[in-house]
Structures are given as structure tokens and as C-alpha cells.
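User: Could you walk me through two proteins back to back? I'd like the raw sequence and the C-alpha cells for each, with a short line separating them so I can tell where one ends and the next begins.

Assistant: Of course. Protein one, sequence then structure:
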Amino acid sequence: MDLQIQALPVTHTRTTTAHLLN
């Protein structure tokens, strides 16, 4: 999972934020 976060930090952050907001 760390590799995905490092590869797409912005996408991961936005996706996580979207889930938290929703």
C-alpha cells in the first residue's frame, strides 16, 4: 500500500478525503 501512496499521493489523499467527507 505504501508503494501506491508514494506513486499517487494526491489521488490517494483525495480518495481518502472523499470517503471521510462522504
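----
Protein two, same layout:
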Amino acid sequence: MAKLTANTLVVHPDTGSPVLLAEGGPLPDWAAGLVGDHLLDEPSSAGLGEAVGRGPGTARKSASDTTEVDALRARIAELEAAQQGNSSSPTELDATQQGGPKLPPRSGPGSGAPEWRAYARSVDVEVADGASREDVIAALDAAGKPTK
């Protein structure tokens, strides 16, 4: 039986009550379709439809559920292509989707030099392909573009 790798909160399909499933504990059979593989020490046999909350005892899939799953699959494909260098970076995708450039964070995920170079180019600031994050931020500051 699969064990949980993190705490998670799910709604019991029969009672409608929230149930805390603790890290290291077994996954109850009734919760198999409610918990994604990312929380399990071994992948489940549930398909993607079940992983988004349609496990045993729940209603059948609706058209809007299928549309949501298709949209999520498309977004995953975009992000995977971006990681492999076959498309725009995630920062560039976000800027395109939101109608404008998205400022990268100063620290943490997405704060590296490639994201800052992509942002600089999206606001018409020329930077060298190998420019460091600090050099890009300095160029943006010099051009009067937002960096914070």
C-alpha cells in the first residue's frame, strides 16, 4: 500500500468532512483517487481523471472537468517544452499570457540569469547572452525599467 510523502487534506467522498492524511501514513482505499502521485512514495494506478478528485464514490466526469484536464495537460506540455529549450521560457510564457512582461523574483525559483535576460529583452533592454543576473539588473536600472 502506498504511503504519503507529505501531509494533505482531502474531503471524504461519503461524509463530506475534511480528513487530514498524515505524512508517512498509508493511503486509505477511499482516498486513492483524491491524492496525486506527487504525494505518494509509489505511483498509483489511478489515471489523471481520478487524480483530480474523481475517485470512488464521486460523480462521473463532466464536460468542464474534461476541459480543465485538457487545459492542464496543454500547460504541462508548454512548460516541459520550455524546460527542454524548445519554446519560450516560463517567464516569457507568463508575460505572453498576461499581456505584458512579468518581473522575475529577486530570489528563489525563477530568479536566475536566464529569466532576468528574458525579462530585459521583453522590455527592450539589450543584454549579452551570457550576462549575469546582477549585470542584467544593473542594465535594467540604468534604462529606468522596473526591477523591484
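The mean pLDDT is 78.

Let me know if you want the two compared in more detail.
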